[in-house]
Amino acid sequence: MTHSPESLWAGRHIVAFGLLAMMLSGFGQTFFVAVLGADIRAAFDLSHSFYGGIYSAATLLSALLLLRVGHWVDHWPLARVTVTALGLLALGCALIGFAPHVAVLAAGFLLVRFGGQGLIAHIGITTAGRHFHWHRGKAIALTAMGMPIAEAILPLTAIVLLGFGGWRMPWWGATGILVVIAIPVMTLLARRIRPPVTSSPETDTEYNLNEPISFTRGEALRDPGFYVLLPAALMTPFIVTAVLFHQAALADASGWSVELIASAFTGYALGHVAALLLAGPLVDRMGAQRVLPLALVPMALGLITLAIGGPAWVAFLYLGLIGVTTGLVATVGGSLWAERYGVRHLGAIRAVAQAMMVISTAIAPITLGALLDMGIGAASIGVMLATGTISFAVLAVFAPDPRRRATPRHSSA
Known about the structure:
Blueprint: H1 12-24, H2 30-34, H3 37-44, H4 48-69, H5 72-75, H6 78-98, H7 102-131, H8 136-144, H9 146-165, H10 168-192, H11 217-221, H12 224-245, H13 247-253, H14 258-286, H15 288-295, H16 297-308, H17 312-341, H18 346-373, H19 378-397
Helix pairs in contact: 1-7, 1-8, 1-9, 1-10, 4-7, 4-18, 6-7, 6-10, 7-8, 7-18, 8-14, 8-17, 9-10, 12-17, 12-18, 12-19, 13-14, 14-15, 14-17, 15-17, 15-19, 16-17, 16-19
């Protein structure tokens, strides 16, 4: 018999664990690091390019590490892998806070990107996806809600602490929160979550009787459909990171003030949260693979809106539509691989997609920066990105179903 909660309330401790994991990943996300970037650069007398290079290198290396260790969540006890991830994140925050040299700063960036953006976010989404079946979409949507909560709280808190003790204070505060509060609370929640394994290792229904097929990571990577769907899944983090990083330049190219574009991010936040509330039932009803192409449509419309430009309200609409896609894809991405390949090796399979996501966020600022340096305007950039988004959405429609060809397997990832 498998342990799949019959309702969200029955699995509320699982949802709470996932939501907190996503919130805590915020300490390793760009939106937290970015508000302290100018002060860090000044403290170490770094150029924009050198500072950006350190951060991008740390992000790329964290993706490679996640490829190597993402399967931990499949094989280690949940409490153990959670403490490991949060411990690495806390160590990274401490290294940045106490960094006497740029080399220590770089090591800190690596650990916060790996432990935060990478590993603990991977654990949170994987756990929600693995333990729910009928309510997987809703559970993952609630788990993903941790990200906009962190976006609303952490940057503002960092700015407040910045005024009290300089740029190091927020990192010391993050270390204290992670060690004193987060690790004990998350450990208690993790220990309440029973491993979703049956008493019969001879069957292929270890995780869910409704998902008789479980692909290993190798089998998933040999499935052509994986590569048909992956670009559509990666387009949103790529575009959102690029837009966030170069928001001032895009605003200037569109004739909008920096103050206006900053205010317009309220539209992004509202779209993000509203879509998360709608996405769960939608994914549960239609399936993640069918929703994915539809989820990209609002972002494509938002990019077309950017290309058209115009009065102030256009900025709110453009970012609001991108926020809608962000919320939809956060839920779809958490459900897609579990729905397609089963949950026995979900951690190993999701680690590949998560690592590719991290890589996409590393190259996005460089790519868009190069286009801006070439003199390409916001209108042309909007059209180019919208065209890519629509193309990948159409491609995802034709992803073949691997369940028609697969046979049950018992090998490890």
